[in-house]
Sequence to fold (206 residues):
Amino acid sequence: MKRSSRHSARAQEEVELVERLKKGDEAAFAEVVRRHQDRIFSLVYRMVSNPQEAEDVAQDVFISFYTSIESFRGDCSLSTWLYRIAVNQSRNRLKYLKIRREHRDSSFHERQQRGIEEKETLAGASFQAHVPRPDHLAAGRELERIVAGALDALPPDQRSLIVCRDIEGLSYQEMVEIFDLPLGTLKSRLHRARLALKDEVSRRWK
Fold:
């Protein structure tokens, strides 16, 4: 009974918060950011694997949330809706980064001719000097690195499923609402994503 009462109180509090947001209450927006910024950043960072990019995407998530609050109908919780926005924004950023990386790679030869590669090599050498050699890393740390790299190698759709379920610990019901998929389809895709991650880790673990 007490649990039900707490749930009802939280639901009512969220309704009031949404009403304030729709009236443009900046204090209400600040409250949403305070409550959810850590988990949203965590999810986004796991998706894009870059702190600066993650900060930019997380900011975009909350801006998108605030500017589209009128379309929120309460069919899910605010946190679930934020996760939905975060997943979509992260996927979009990954697509953008892929295009940018491909463009940069295609112009590598031209940059070599201009001598820019010398500066990049020096910068890379400076960075690498501070990175421990693989044979100096503990097995646990090495495995963590390999898993992170394997996760980055997965397509965004598979990566987002694993991040939400296995890293962020979201419930299947939350994920059904986030990804707008039937439960059976969601579990099937998550299973394939896990198999893909396992294969990628096995390939890298030599």
Summary: Residues 132-206 form a domain with the Arc Repressor Mutant, subunit A fold (CATH 1.10.10.10). Residues 115-134 have pLDDT under 50 and may be disordered. The two ends are 54 Å apart (CA to CA).
